Known about the structure:
Elements: H1 2-33, H2 39-53, H3 87-91, E1 109-110, E2 129-134, E3 144-146, E4 152-155, H4 161-169, E5 183-186, E6 201-202, H5 217-230, E7 235-237, E8 240-241, H6 250-264, E9 270-277, E10 286-293, E11 296-299, E12 301-306, E13 308-309, E14 312-313, H7 317-334, E15 342-345, E16 357-364, H8 369-387
Parallel strand pairs: 2-10, 4-15, 5-7, 5-9, 9-16, 12-15
Antiparallel strand pairs: 1-8, 2-6, 3-4, 10-11, 12-16, 13-14
Amino acid sequence: MGLRNTAAAAACVLAAAVGVPLLVWQLGRAAKSIGSGERWLSKVAVGSYALTLGSLPTDLQTRGTAIPKQSSIVGRLTPFTARNYTTLDIFCAPEEVQTKAGREIPTPLPSEEVLGALPYINDENAADGLITRYTFIDGDSEQFFTLPGGSQVRNCTDYASSFLLDMAAEGVSIESTPDEPLVLIYHTHATESFERTVRESYDSAFSCKTTEREMNIVSVGDELCKALEESGVSCLHDTLVHDYPSYDAAYDSSRETVSALLEEYPSIKIVLDIHRDGIERDTGERLAPYCEIGGRGAAQIMIISCVGDENGDVPRHLENFKFACALQEQIDSDYPELCRPMLFDYRFYNQDLSDGALLIEVGSQANSIDEVRFTGKLLGEEIGKLVNGR
């Protein structure tokens, strides 16, 4: 009887040791997915999960875990070596997460109708964590290869880099229809926002999301589209807010919108989902991808081209990849520091909808709104040059 009681007690202890951390982790994921300010819950959950089971769940690992230890990324602006940072810390940010809603998709709301839903409340005097401006440069591991023009691709797929280099060399041909839109700009996560000014610290109480258009990623799209039109390239700008009130359903919502627009405007050949990155270390320090162009601060961008994953297949992903390389090379020819290495990876992001579909990260939550708007303008000009053959 005593042995049986001892065994039962041991079983209860084991169940609690595994079950409680898993429960906390699930709660943390929920808190993170809805963009709440309770980030401590996610952090506690991740730590509890790792302590109990020995490693992080796959969907909470960053996209750079495959970088060999001998790799190095050197900052041109800040001496990171004295701070004991690793390549993984410096180069990578949490992966852009795509989820399936599993329920009815809410109707997206026009940006002007939800301006006050998530107000921009960001205390300029708060100093809860450090902001560091950082220029990301080329990688030197086997994952990276260099395009003929000098820009880099980070290949996280099973494709041989030599094969991808040959594909990129084929180039692209973009045919436009007079007086019809060629480019579609949209924002799956329209509420992603930025700092109001260039600053050295941030307010941790601010969620880095707002429906106020002048302070979120939609304003970057405004600058991009304005530059396209000035370059003679007709475009559409979808300003619907797909990530409010439901963040989890955002990709399903934007997919419905983009599909309808492509059906209505078959002339569209380039489909760009414009986001901002989120780069924050375990220490709480945030990195702002940054470079200077003509004496003015600009936010670096990262182009992401997808092969497909559990969310869906991208049957013509090599066509998207060739377009991504052409755009990367075009930008790099004028502004060698504006682009971080392009990412080619097993992801989805609805890139099956068009041969010219890409996701572009413009800066991070630590960049100023002026920096990202300036980058939006430059990006529009460069797309115009690519379309017009310079």
